[in-house]
Write a structure and sequence with these properties.
Blueprint: H1 15-20, H2 35-51, H3 54-62, E1 82-91, E2 100-101, E3 104-105, E4 112-121, H4 123-150, H5 155-163, H6 167-194, H7 206-213, E5 217-218, E6 230-232
Antiparallel strand pairs: 1-4, 1-5, 1-6, 2-3
């Protein structure tokens, strides 16, 4: 976490240093910061810990089972095999959060804190989330692409242009409208099916719900009631909310 090589660092030996969970002083980017910037970061990390205590966030990334699973009565959750990543934000008019922690920003320069979360997930839930996210997009793009192809140099294009010069454009517009319709219908249908087995709204998880009740909100706007997720096979090793309690 820290060593004798950089005892001049403002974070050296502090709880905030452990909270930052760097690989060591030699590899820690804080060592390259100016003294006043280190002091600001120290205050920012201390404030972030108060607003989102480690003991409230830690269960999300240390569980042995998938937290997205919705097992039937008497059923079991899947094994934690990967992680669902998303960010939460909280307004803080008195703060300035233009700091990075282990390669991730607490936020862009603004007056809002950014809380990076990792949630234990199984491969089945990851697959369902990806089906929900990508299948409607792919189908819509195929339909729009087909419309673009048919509206160019094809026999259908020639016939449409012979009938009326604007007809090819109307044909393409019709395909685009169909693509949007298919996109939203598919998302609704897939969400209905997926949500029976997998939680798509992270704010419904108990730990995240507790944060939401304390003023935290999802940094990215929901899409169709679902949290926008990114998946990783391994837990992030460094940065805030990656350290585990030391009783291990």
């Amino acid at each position: 976490m820290y060593d004798e090589k950089n005892t001049d660092c403002a974070l050296y030996g502090t709880e905030e240093c452990a909270f930052l969970n760097s690989d060591g002083c030699l590899d820690c980017y804080v060592a390259r910061m100016k003294k006043d910037e280190q002091q600001q970061l120290l205050s920012a990390l201390a404030h972030l810990k108060e607003e989102a205590p480690l003991e409230e966030v830690e269960p999300l990334y240390t569980a042995d089972e998938c937290l997205l699973c919705k097992p039937r009565e008497g059923g079991e959750r899947g094994k934690a095999e990967c992680y669902a990543l998303f960010d939460m934000a909280k307004d803080d008019p008195a703060g300035d959060w233009a700091f990075k922690t282990g390669g991730r920003s607490l936020s862009k320069k603004s007056q809002a804190m950014l809380l990076p979360l990792q949630v234990c997930c199984c491969k089945s839930c990851r697959r369902r989330c990806r089906v929900f996210e990508f299948v409607p997009v792919i189908c819509a793009l195929i339909i729009a692409g087909l419309g673009l192809y048919l509206s160019t140099e094809t026999p259908l294009f020639a016939q449409a242009q012979a009938a009326a010069r604007w007809l090819p454009f109307a044909l393409f517009a019709g395909f685009v409208a169909a693509a949007f319709t298919v996109y939203f219908v598919l998302r609704s249908v897939i969400a209905s099916a997926v949500s029976k087995k997998t939680e798509l709204d992270m704010t419904k998880l108990p730990a995240v719900s507790a944060l939401a009740a304390d003023g935290w909100r999802e940094a990215q706007q929901k899409s169709g009631g679902a949290t926008k997720l990114v998946f990783a096979n391994k837990l992030r090793k460094n940065g805030v909310y990656t350290v585990k309690n030391k009783e291990e």
